[in-house]
Amino acid sequence: MQFSDHYQENLNDPNVKPDARGMDPTLLPHLVKVAHGAGLKVIVHIYSAADFRNAVAAGADEIAHFPGKGYGVVKSAKLFQITAGDAKAAAKAHIAVSTTVSWLGELKEKIHRATKSPETRF
Prior knowledge:
Shape: globular
Number of strands: 3
Distance between the termini: 24 Å
C-alpha cells in the first residue's frame, strides 16, 4: 500500500505514474481473508500512517517498511506519524511492525536547512 488515503485521486491523476498509485485499500480485507483461509500470513508493505491504519483494520499479520520513502515528495514527517491508539490497535492484534527509518535523518537535515533553526524535532 502507498498513500492509501489518496488512492482514488491518484488513480485518476495522469501525473501519477501507474506504479505509484498503490492498491485499492478496499481490496485488502478480502485479500487477507483469502490468504488466511489458505493458511498464509499477510505482510503489508506500507508508506504512510493511513496505510498503517488500513493494514491493521484489514487484519494483516505484519506491517513492513514503515515509514516508506520512494514515491512522491515527502514534505513532512507528519505523514508518517501514527497515534498511540494506532500502535495499541496493532499490538492488540499481535501485528508485527518492521520499520525502515534510515532516511529520516535525511529529512531532518532538509528541514533543518530549510528552516535554519538550530534544532528540528518531529
